Amino acid sequence: MQKKMIKKIRKRDTKGLDYVINNYSKKVYYLVDKIIGFYGREEVEECVSDVFYELWENIDQFDEKRGEFSSFIYMKTKYKALDYKRRLEKKEVHKTELEDDITNKITTEHIVLDKESSEEIIEIINNFKEPDKTYFYNRYFMYYKVDDIAVMYKTTRASVENRLYRCRLKIKEMLEGRK
């Protein structure tokens, strides 16, 4: 039955794909859920769909001499789910960085906008010691990413973040002290 089903898929007969979905979807779903279930049901279902679509599109990659069809499906599933996981992790990291960045900018910009003159801010920044002044300038005026600043100055991301945090605190303290 399995050989007939593979032939049907190769001939683009959807009955072959229906057979595969009916017989393998539970295990495919289970494997995908184990790998990316943390990201939500919607992501899992999308990945499962992509597994079967890829199977449909790349059925010619299956070689009976190299192994069982079930192994072929499960390997496709594993690699597709891992691709999804990498993409979702990258998306999460970017989202978190963006949220942190927006929060920091809003707080800093709020202080800047609340004050009568930005000259006070520039004076405070100009009094920062190096490399704080350079880091702050690159981050908030040139809009460099923290990772890029760390690479440029051969330091760690944590070091840059800590220095920027202390700079923002100094600005806030000095501006609040002048009220």
From TrEMBL:
Residue ranges annotated for the RNA polymerase sigma-70 region domain, each copy included: 22-88
An example Gene Ontology biological process: DNA-templated transcription initiation
InterPro entries assigned: RNA_pol_sigma-70-like (IPR039425), RNA_pol_sigma-70_dom (IPR014284), RNA_pol_sigma70_r2 (IPR007627), RNA_pol_sigma_r2 (IPR013325), RNA_pol_sigma_r3/r4-like (IPR013324), WH-like_DNA-bd_sf (IPR036388)
Keywords noted in UniProt: DNA-binding, Sigma factor, Transcription, Transcription regulation
GO molecular function, one term: DNA binding
UniProt family annotation: Belongs to the sigma-70 factor family. ECF subfamily.
Record-given protein name: Sigma-70 family RNA polymerase sigma factor
